[in-house]
Amino acid sequence: MTKSLHVFLDHLIDYAGLFPPAALSMDDAVRNYAHYRDGEYAFALGPFVVPKDRVDEVPRDFPLTILGVDEVKDLDSARDRAFVEIADNALIPELARRGLRAKIRTGGDVVPSVEHVAEFLRACNSAGVAFKATAGLHHPIRSGDAHGFVNVFLAAAMIDHAESILRETDEGAFSFSDENVRWRGYTISTEQLADTRKNFALSFGSCSFEEPIDDLKALGWL
Known about the structure:
Layout: H1 3-9, E1 13-15, H2 26-37, E2 45-51, E3 64-67, H3 75-78, E4 83-85, H4 92-98, E5 101-105, H5 114-127, E6 131-134, H6 149-157, H7 162-167, E7 174-176, E8 180-183, E9 186-189, H8 190-199, E10 201-206, H9 210-218
Helix pairs in contact: 1-8, 6-8
């Protein structure tokens, strides 16, 4: 695996096995997560995603992303870890003012357009708001109307070309080396990618951890 791909995948996939379409039991989801933590690709694994009313069912040593929190008692301590899902990109500057992070739904019942996702990325970038994505990013590369996670996160890293990258359906247009990531002649360094992943484009939730990894293997990238 190249250095830039390792950087790209670093804690990228939040495990949401409890949620549709997988909708696993808690026992199965916990068992899977424990297995992934001990596996070859543990470096790509983010927190375990759990509804707020089921937190007590999760092993205490699991890092968590908690969904459905309506009120944060200690906002100052949680501020840089709280994500707000929004439908209107015009609200992003308000998130910046409050020191909050953004969340975009990239699939599900309604798949957002390329234009909407690109606008979201540009607005977050301009406002200095970090983001995560949820729903629909099951595969690396865009196919039909479904967004690809490689497209979304490299669009965030190459923001000037966001719409074109989001539309890309040819996996051969992307290449990862130790020194950089390339898309159709445009390049960012591995260091620039690391900065984007650490401070801006943080992660995406997936009900499957194996599917994204298996797809990357099928591409010959892993």
